[in-house]
Amino acid sequence: MQLETSSPNKTAPIVDRPDMPGYGIQAIGDGLSLIPWEGVDKMLSKARNYWISTTRPDGRPHAVPVWAVWREGAFFFGTGKRSQKERNIKNNPWLVVHLESGNEVVIIQGRVEHIADPDLFASIADVYSFKYDWSPLEGLEGD
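RE: above sequence
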């Protein structure tokens, strides 16, 4: 699956920081700046584990760690056809992705799309194989 992470007008990602007075989070301009997009891109590319959050049909949240690939501004991950996250995505295709660090926080959100292009799928599978020493093509025959 692919997560479309660009803004609704399909131009560039919207980058922001929460305004949380009283929680010890500095506001932008108080000597603090956002992580430059190049840094975010690098962090997303190098991460090994990603946390994704979906919403169950009854509204309850569901969060799990997954292996994934960040490539050309898109987040690619896989899931079983009968998994909770797949059932959630079929009902509500919006997803939140969070890296493991709580100090250098990167959170992306967007709409999930299934990969229909076999060449793109094969290309992403190659990146998975290199990154994790595992191929998402293994075991597809029975699914």
